[in-house]
């Protein structure tokens, strides 16, 4: 059971991790807390946006769209490795997922295959959207991957979690394919090395 970090602590921990942070608008108070609870937090979820173009991608993640209002994550990691903070609190990124997966994340055990959409993930996960088309061809620059690794490790370090608390959307919600272009096992190994 971990209460979410304050927005200030979140910002400080990302900066301490050595990433370039861009604060977008009133990100500290832009959230969906009026729609449901935020916390306790149990992990970090990684996504791809299926979009191209930094400005457009950040704006979409901040405002969302009519069917899914923003923020759509907490931080948008663009191809240059910058982390754009678009919201803080409950965000529309994880949706409904598998309660067995959530239990495995909490226990930091091997994840079961996700086959249920029964549990509110927006309550329990920090979320990062990464600018990538998700077509399996669009490259993931090293600067971007390094930023994903650093922000994930920073949050794990704050909460005393291992790399097993970092999952991909595709491991949470049946039918999701993101992030595509690397494996979460590979990313978790990088995060594990950084946490040593
Ligand atoms: Zn996603």
From TrEMBL:
What GO terms in the biological process aspect are recorded for it?
A: peptidoglycan catabolic process
Q: Give start-end ranges for the coiled-coil region(s).
A: none
Q: Which domain of life is it from?
A: Bacteria
Q: Which GO terms describe its molecular function?
A: N-acetylmuramoyl-L-alanine amidase activity
Q: What is this protein called?
A: Peptidoglycan-binding protein
Q: What positions does the domain N-acetylmuramoyl-L-alanine amidase occupy?
A: 27-180
One Pfam family matching this protein:
Amidase_2
């Amino acid at each position: 059971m971990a209460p979410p970090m304050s927005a200030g602590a979140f910002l400080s921990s990302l900066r301490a991790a050595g990433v370039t942070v861009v604060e977008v608008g009133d990100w500290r108070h832009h959230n969906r807390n009026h729609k449901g609870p935020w916390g306790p937090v149990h992990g970090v979820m990684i996504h791809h946006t299926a979009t191209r173009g930094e400005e457009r991608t950040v704006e979409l993640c901040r405002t969302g769209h009519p069917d899914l209002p923003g923020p759509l994550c907490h931080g948008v990691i663009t191809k240059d490795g910058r982390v754009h903070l678009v919201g803080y609190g409950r965000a529309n990124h994880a949706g409904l997922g598998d309660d067995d997966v959530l239990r495995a994340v909490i226990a930091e055990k091997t994840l079961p295959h996700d086959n249920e959409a029964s549990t509110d993930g927006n309550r329990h996960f920090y979320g990062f959207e990464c600018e990538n088309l998700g077509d399996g061809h669009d490259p993931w620059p090293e600067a971007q991957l390094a930023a994903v690794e650093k922000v994930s490790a920073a949050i794990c370090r704050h909460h005393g979690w291992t790399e097993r608390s970092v999952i991909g959307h595709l491991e949470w919600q049946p039918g999701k394919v993101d992030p595509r272009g690397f494996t979460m096992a590979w990313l978790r190994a990088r995060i594990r090395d950084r946490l040593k």
